[in-house]
Amino acid sequence: MDCIKIGKLIARLRREKGLTQQQIADALNITNKTVSKWECGLGCPDLSLWPDLSVILGVDMAQLMEGEISLNQPDSGNLARTRFYVCPACGNILFSTGGASVFCCGRKLEPLSPLPREDGPAIMIEQIDGEYFITADHPMEKGHFLSFAAYVKNEQIFFTRLYPEQNPSFRFPLFPGGTLFLYCTQHGLTRYPNIR
Fold it and tell me: Which pLDDT band, with edges at 50, 70 and 90, does 42 fall under?
């Protein structure tokens, strides 16, 4: 571990949060001299303090231990580059509109790789009252169901969360030419481009 790099990062993050060394010390039940020692690069936090310190400073623990935070690329605003993530521990669904480091339940998540539409469930699309009414031919059982549907077009994303024992049907505004994404809890993400 590079204690000097880690100390500089701790000091920077502490100042960004508007915290004093004493406030950090109080939260960790240590002395403010210990925090000062870290920030001067004269030592690193004890192993037992890393999880709480990362929460206090609002940063991923692994990056804090490396003394360097990797920055995401600025969001280009192009929703065609939307990436979806599903946490394997809690099932949370997250998405980004560009390259991002996404974490949930202490794990770094990788973006889902979409399957082509031929490998996904069959869908039926109807146009009703200015909306797409989409029905998927897919089981909706407790261990095998569609977890979400998303429709991406231009600068907009429409998202519907789905649950077991629910009908696998959903509605999206009628914007032809967008991309539909369906996520199956067993088989993953399927991409349906150029919906008409």
Answer: very high
Q: What pLDDT is stored for residue 72 in this prediction? A: 55
Query: Is residue 114 classed as helix, strand or coil in its secondary structure?
Result: coil
**Domains of the chain with bracketed CATH:** 3-66 (1.10.260.40), 79-83+112-192 (2.60.40.730)
- Under DSSP, is residue 142 helix (H, G, I), strand (E, B) or coil? coil
Encode pLDDT of 11-21 as tens digits. 999 999 899 99
pTM: 0.67
Q: Supply 87's token pair.
A: 């946490």
Cα separation, 176 vs 153, in Å, equals: 8
CA–CA separation, 60 and 173 (whole Å):
38
Beta strand pairing status for 93-96 and 83-86?
A: antiparallel
Backbone torsion region of residue 18, taken as left when φ is above 0, otherwise alpha when ψ lies between -120 and 50, otherwise beta: left
Cα Rg of the chain (Å, integer): 23
